[in-house]
Amino acid sequence: GVVESAGGELICDTSNEDSAEAQVNACEKLISAGVKGIIMTPMADSILPSIISMCEENGVYLAITFRNIGDEDVAKIVEASEYYAGNCYEDEEMAGYNVMSDAFEKNPDIKQVALIALAVGDNTSDARVAGIQKACAENGAEVVAEVRDIQQASDATEEVQNFVAAYPELDCIAVASCYENSAITALPEAIKGTGLTADDICIVSCDGGSDMTKLFDYGYAISVGGGHLEIDRGATAVMLVNAIQGNPLGTPAHISIPYMYFGSVEDVGDYATYVEGEIPIWTQDEIRENLLISQNSALAPEDVISYIQNYSLDDLRTRHADLAG
Fold this sequence. Notes:
The protein is of the alpha/beta class. It has helices spanning about 1-5, 20-30, 50-60, 70-80, 90-105, 125-140, 155-165, 180-185, 185-195, 215-220, 230-245, 265-275, 285-290, 300-310, 315-320; strands spanning about 35-40, 60-65, 85-90, 110-115, 140-150, 170-175, 200-205, 220-225, 255, 260.
C-alpha cells in the first residue's frame, strides 16, 4: 500500500462505536499512539475544529476521505491549518447524471422513470437524484415515481410491483442509492414477476460491484456506476503521506475521485479482477514512480493528482494486464 511504500505503518482504529463523539475519542487515541497523520470520514462537520486543533498541538496531519466539508465556517477553520492535507470526494451529482445519460444514449426511447434512493437528507443520495433528474429533463423523460429507504430485496420486489401497477408504461428503474446491493440485484426477478421483460423495463444504478453481473446476465442493466471506494481511500493516503513528507499536493488539496461505469458482463468481470480481486489498484513501483514526490523528485503535485484522476477500468486493464494472469 501507499503507507508501506513510504516506509510507514498503517494503524487502524477498530472500535465499533458509530458516533461523532467516538470519532473524536479515536483521534485522541491515535495521536497518543504517536501517529503522524490521520485519515477519517467525519460523521459531522462540527467535530472537525476540535480535531484539527488536536492535530496542530501534536504536529499530526489530517486528511478527509469520501467527503467535502459542507459547513463553510468549519471549512474556513480547518483549511486555515497547515496540518490539514485536504480531502478526496466524489461528484455524486455528476455520477447520477452520467449513469442516466448513458442510459439515454443506449435507449433513447426512455420516457418514464421510477427512482429508488435513500431517505431525503442523505447528501450522497440526494446529489445522485439531482443528477438523474437533470439527465431525464434534458432527454424529455419524466420521473413518475420514487421510493426511499429500501432496506432489503423483498422491499425492492414490492416496490417494483407498485411501480408497474401505477405506471404500465414505465421504461426504466433508476437506482440512486441503496443500503444493500441485494435490493438492486433483486430487481430483474421482480420485473419478471410482473410479466415484463428487459425489453420493457431497463435498470440503471449509481451503486455497483462485482455482484452486478446478475443485472447484466438478465439483460436488464444498461449502465452501472461504482469502483470509487478503493481509489478514494488510496488517493487520500497519497495526499496525506505527501503532506507528512513535506510535499503537499495543495494548501489544502481537493481531489475529485472518478467513478467507473460498467455497461456489460465483461466490464463487471474485469472490475472483479482488477479492483475487488488480489491485484492492487497501484503496484509499489507505480506508487514510487507516480505518487510519492519524495521518491521521484521529477513529480509535481499536479502530476500526482492527474495520475490519480486517470483511474478507470480501461486504465487498470492497460496498466495491469500482465498481473491478471
